[in-house]
Amino acid sequence: MSLKVRSLHYRYGSVTALADLSLELPQGQIWAVLGPSGSGKTTLLGLLAGLLAPTAGEIWGEGRLLSRPGWALPPERRRMSMVFQDFALWPHMTVAQTVAFPLTVAKVPESERRRRVEEVLRSVRLEAFAKRYPHELSGGQRQRVAIARALVGRPSLVLLDEPMSNLDARLRESMRLELAATLRQEGVSALYVTHDRIEALAIADKILLMDAGKKVQEGTPQDLYQRPQTRFAVDFMGAANLLAVKPDPDRRGVWTTGFGVRLHGTEEEPRQEEGQALWLLRPEQVALSAKAAVVPDGIVWAATVTDRVYLGAYWEVALRNPDGTQLRAHSQEGWSIGEEVTVAALPTAPWLIHEPMPGQETDQPEDASLQDPQGPGPTLLRRRIRKTVAPRDGTSHRDQLARAPEDSDSTSA
Ligand code: ADP
Ligand code: MG
């Protein structure tokens, strides 16, 4: 489904959970909605699924109006499906029954139903587990059941809310490749909500980065990692050095660090004197070599090793630049503390971000309630949804989205 979201707002009473969010998801793409806890991700999914009606703004799917202020087309009429954080499997239903359920509800003929269930179970590698119950499955297998159930009815859009957060770290790593492959094979559009930047980078065609209910930046994984627009985006996407630079008064596009190293080749125009420019240098964009070594031309300077720690894949090295500022680098060698080394920045076009000087902050959220003083914490929305997990609680929207039994009679399906 191609999805068009226009200037969406949502308030829980006095709390603005989502402010002025717009996006256009083309058919067949996988987008990640990435942000810290409390940034409005689950609220956005609730609005897209039709569990919530917006306070302002509109949602369109394939040219059809799905939501407007105070009104939402019911979840079961949206051709969307959802994968919940806790998978929401029904304990008394086998894998095959669970996955068949959306088709049973849709009154798909038995032979067609059986064929499609087999096909989906094969694509998530669960064909040998069709007769098992949830308690006889591992966490990764349960997740695959939830994904199979979300895909079986050929939805146009799959919404996934932190589907990896209940899996252990090693499993997450293998599942993210597999999940992306399954979604692409099915050709569905998907919005994948996560607070894990690695998942977002690995899975998504585009990432929508959120903070405090607002979109911070939207772009490809490379855009977000290599060309972040704000300090929040820099930090959220990974470890970074930010070195203050000043524009060369005479030469446009040339910038100088506090220790006299010049950067060429930025497209940046020097901005007004107030505010500062920061050069983004991720730890893996820095190469260290012995002081005496011959270093090719480029952006190089001398620095002193102040600390280092071995992390297996590389050493994380802390250095002091000539002006006293700190630098973090990844290196294949463990240097000695106190050693002077040559630092070379990898030859990519330097990326600068600009921010107001302290005290000049201009882009505070206009609504103080966007900043949750209590911190993230479990949300009422989530709690409300959780409460409806029990399959006998027939008419809940969550169950409709997951295509749960309508009542206890149909559990034999
Ligand atoms: P995320 O999924 O990114 O962690 P949420 O969408 O759950 O964020 O929450 C966004 C904001 O809305 C948070 O400040 C949260 O506390 C608040 N919030 C979420 N659900 C409710 C609710 N049912 N009632 C009041 N505030 C809520
Ligand atoms: Mg959430």
Describe the structure.
- This protein has helices at residues 41-49, 95-105, 110-123, 139-152, 169-186, 197-203, 221-226, 231-237, 380-387, 397-402; strands at 3-12, 15-25, 30-34, 56-61, 64-68, 71-72, 80-83, 157-161, 189-194, 206-211, 214-219, 241-247, 255-257, 262-263, 276-281, 286-290, 299-310, 315-320, 326-331, 340-345, 351-355.
- The chain has two domains: 3-212 and 379-412, Rossmann fold (3-Layer(aba) Sandwich); 231-355, OB fold (Dihydrolipoamide Acetyltransferase, E2P) (Beta Barrel).
- The protein has 413 residues and is of the alpha+beta class.
- It is built from ten helices and 21 strands.
- The longest helix is centred in the middle third of the chain and has 18 residues, at 169-186.
- It is elongated.
- The structure holds adenosine-5'-diphosphate and magnesium ion.
- Magnesium ion binds at residues 41-42.
Number of helical stretches of at least 4 residues:
10
For this structure, the CATH topology of the largest domain is Rossmann fold
Strand order of the largest sheet: 7-8-9-3-10-11
The chain-level structural class is alpha+beta
CATH classification, class level of the largest domain: Alpha Beta
The rough form would be described as elongated
Number of strands: 21
Instruction: Please report which band the strand proportion falls in: under 5%, 5-15%, 15-25%, 25-35%, 35-45% or over 45%.
Output: 25-35%
- As a whole number of angstroms, the C-alpha radius of gyration is 25 Å
Summarize the structure.
Helix content is 24%, strand content 30%. The protein has ten helices and 21 strands.
